[in-house]
Amino acid sequence: MKLAELAGKLELKAVNSLFDRELTGVYISDMVSDVIANAQAGNLLVTLQVHTNVIAAANLVDIAAIVVTQGKKPPEDVIKMADKAKITLFTTELNRWQIATKLYESGVR
Amino acid sequence: MAEQTGLRYQMVDVTPGHVVMEHDLMSRAMRSYFSAEQVAPVEEYREGDHIWHFAGTAQAIQFDVRDNRSGEIIPFRELLGLTYYGCAKPETALRRLGDVAHENGISVYVAVAYENPDGSVRALASEKIRVLNALFNDRLRTPGKKILILPDVFDLYRTMSYGEIMIDFGLTSMEAD
Question: Are A60 and B107 in contact (CB under 8 A)?
């Protein structure tokens, strides 16, 4: 599934540019070391973290986009860094369990 | 890490643990090491002329890399973490170099190593830097995207804060908003 299609289905709001690409799956984690070790290229990363190191780790493993949960707002430097790395940043009021359920129902595995 | 067939290098023996930072009040020396214990050790201890005090901790992983062609396991025990150029302070050599590289489609990272007990750095061998570059670049899917992992020619291990290295701080105290 393409990122733009998923964003439309889940009503996800991008806080930076939308860099549309094919998703290869989902990875849910709040640890950058875990993301580096286990996430796959093209994954959608679901996290509560908004530190610059999350973008650094996501870029290293070629994450397609990040969904920040529970209404957390990424700081401006994080948004700029995501733009430079061509990683779409979404925010949602949902928690990680709720967004995981919606992703599954949308057909993302 | 999930099995990825067809890739030459693969992260194996991924061990979760802690980067433990410690300091000696008398000499003002600081150093860090990896602990695989479930709870990071915080006790002070004497070593020669130094008395090392706990200064902080962050969650991290330690890993080895398997060469799927030869079967060789390449240990990376001296690797503290990777630092992304975008997390470096503006006007530093790393940031300026990284900005130029970025304009050419290359994301620059620096492999920061642990210190030896005497404070000297445990430099990563050139061959290991080559393996790290292959490990991460082989996993990329975005056309034209390139990762460049450099050895710590910037002496970052001396000058930068641990917050600039990709290790996990403050997770246990993280608030929901």
Answer: yes
